[in-house]
Amino acid sequence: MLEFDDIQHILLMRVPALTGRYEFLSFRNAMGGRTWLSAIREKVQSAAEVRASVEQEKRWVTVAFTWNGLRALGVDEASLATFPEEFRQGMVARAEMLGDTGANHPDKWVGGLASPSLHAIVILFAGDETERERCVTEHNKFIAQCRDVEVLSSLDLAAVPPFIYAHDHFGYRDRLSQPVIESSGEVPTPGSGAPLKPGEFILGYPDEAGPPANLPQPEILSRNGSYMAYRRLQEHVGRFREFLRQNADTPEEQELLGIARTAHESPRHSSEHEPASHDPSWSHVWPALAGGRTGGRRGAWHRRFCDLREPDPPIRVRAKCLG
Predict the structure, then answer these.
(1) pTM confidence score
(2) Number of domains in the chain
(3) Domain assignment of residue 278, given as a range
(4) Cβ atoms of 279 and 111 closer than 8 Å
(5) pLDDT tens digit string along 97-141?
């Protein structure tokens, strides 16, 4: 059975958020990082807590760490060596392998996301902008007291209307084939297949290949945690719509062409093939402090989209927490 009280909500729950914020942090020393962590962990909700209070809450917080972040917090070298090589190397070292070259080279990543000093990401989801600003103000006050913690950059989020169903920036419905985790209590949507073993997403549980294996040690570093890939890309909504207008005569033809086009260019196969600019950063999810990529050997998808709006309407930016 899943230990809902020790798994961060983002792995198992969808919250009714319309806005939010990402903050990317650096710790100057272990004491500063641990002081910040001791305070923020009280704000981080487990899946059990969110299930019990989702109707009353207006804000939801998730925390995740890079491998360098775990080292900055003082995790010993022997334990750090038990994490997968891909996580230890990080996306900057693996940029060429992932196709992050040319305009997408790490030198062009913004917000300090290519820096080895990127240690943690805080994800805030909020029910409205007022609550988001309240939470940001509260966190800024605390950061100001933590002299050994620095905010490298931040990114404000906002859902794109209409809000009555999930969709991407181009207007097409999303989450139609979201995989479901076995024992999570969710029911698969038609065509999504049977629920997948928890170990495909959450460390410490059996996956589709069998019992858990090769987990980071000691167990407290890995059980109920996961991995999360953060990538940022631009989507030129205006150009896409202009393409449809130029190549189809009626709204119906535009819709059909758009569906065919997005299906052909879908980035779902793997994050390294997504178009436009990338600002990736791998993060590990600690047991009660974790966030969302697959933990299993098989690497099944578990996607959570956090859409945001930029001032220029024709160009939308999507920050993605991928699995």
Answers:
(1) 0.80
(2) 1
(3) 4-322
(4) yes
(5) 989 999 999 999 999 999 999 999 999 999 999 999 999 999 999
